UniProtKB/TrEMBL annotation:
Enzyme Commission identifier(s): 2.3.2.36
Name of the protein in question: RING-type E3 ubiquitin transferase (cysteine targeting)
UniProt keyword annotations, A-Z: Membrane, Metal-binding, Peroxisome, Protein transport, Transferase, Transmembrane, Transmembrane helix, Transport, Ubl conjugation pathway, Zinc, Zinc-finger
Protein's membrane topology: Multi-pass membrane protein
Organism (species): Anopheles epiroticus
Catalytic activity as recorded in UniProt: [E2 ubiquitin-conjugating enzyme]-S-ubiquitinyl-L-cysteine + [acceptor protein]-L-cysteine = [E2 ubiquitin-conjugating enzyme]-L-cysteine + [acceptor protein]-S-ubiquitinyl-L-cysteine
Domain RING-type: 233-273
GO MF annotations in UniProt: ubiquitin protein ligase activity; zinc ion binding
Record flagged with keyword Protein transport: yes
Organism taxonomic ancestry: Eukaryota, Metazoa, Ecdysozoa, Arthropoda, Hexapoda
């Protein structure tokens, strides 16, 4: 009976909520991106292109510094430290520390170096792409495994068989349910917009609304095209470049007219509402 209680107490002490483990990974990514942005701001004062060829090495030095001052010294990343999480020290001996450094720092540097400097080696680029696709698949499988077991959220943790431990024992994170509900609603709304907006043809919708709000339809016959030194594109209102027309007297830039007709098969002249599926180059006589 006493042994059972002891095991139960140990399990509660080592319990780390799944959300904390996922949040620690997100925090690590944000910290890394923030530091990289700061370095980019510092490098902007240097002459353009002076250190651009050393970008993989700069990222490698930054990642190595983060690893040294977090995993090597505290057995926890900075994101984990912010959430009172750490790795089990007995599961990270010297050999596993070296492997952790190779997998989390050296391997990404090698991949970035290959993609940055060996762009002409198509075979190597294909091999790297295949390796990335395989890692994405393995990460997905490991994520589902993590959702079931609640341990080892990253592929590196799974390969090295290292677990998290909470520094606060069985203490759970306090969550404001009103805040959480609001965030969930907002996140769901953003996902809905991100999924539906690409399916909406904005150009066709705007044309239909304009025609719907117009009291009476206007029909224009083909008229003589007006082109002179003061002519402006009927769409962008800038000096016309490669003048074309769609049958009415208004002139468009080639890219403005072609782009609108590709985006909206029923595109009408935004000045006189003339519609045509073809367009011609303006010939100056």
């Amino acid at each position: 009976m006493g042994t059972s209680n002891l095991n139960t107490g140990k399990m509660k002490t080592n319990f780390v909520p799944r959300v904390n483990q996922l949040d620690s990974i997100q925090l690590d990514n944000e910290i890394s991106n923030l530091l990289r942005q700061q370095i980019q701001n510092i490098l902007q004062v240097l002459p353009p292109g002076l250190l651009s060829h050393l970008q993989p090495e700069i990222n490698f030095v930054l990642s190595s510094a983060l690893w040294n001052f977090s995993i090597r010294t505290s057995y926890a990343t900075f994101g984990q430290q912010m959430l009172s999480i750490t790795y089990e020290k007995d599961q990270l001996p010297a050999g596993k520390l070296v492997l952790h450094y190779l997998l989390t720092t050296v391997l990404p540097y090698a991949k970035e170096n290959v993609q940055f400097r060996l762009t002409n080696w198509s075979l190597i680029q294909k091999l790297v792409q295949l390796a990335e696709n395989a890692l994405v698949l393995f990460n997905l499988v490991n994520f589902f495994k993590f959702l079931r077991s609640g341990t080892r959220p990253s592929l590196v943790d799974c390969l090295l068989r290292i677990n998290h431990r909470s520094l606060d024992g069985a203490k759970r994170r306090t969550i404001g349910y009103s805040y959480m509900t609001r965030e969930l609603v907002w996140a769901g709304f953003m996902e809905l917009l991100g999924f539906t907006i690409p399916f909406v043809n904005y150009h066709a919708l705007r044309r239909r609304l304009r025609n719907l709000l117009r009291l009476e339809a206007t029909h224009r016959q083909t008229e003589r095209v007006e082109l002179n030194t003061e002519s402006r594109c009927a769409y962008c209102n800038e000096r016309v470049i490669l003048p074309h027309h769609m049958g009415c007297r208004h002139v468009f830039c080639y890219l403005c007219l072609k782009g609108n007709q590709l985006a909206d098969a029923g595109f009408q002249c935004n000045v006189c509402d003339y519609r045509s599926h073809t367009f011609k180059k303006v010939v100056v006589l």
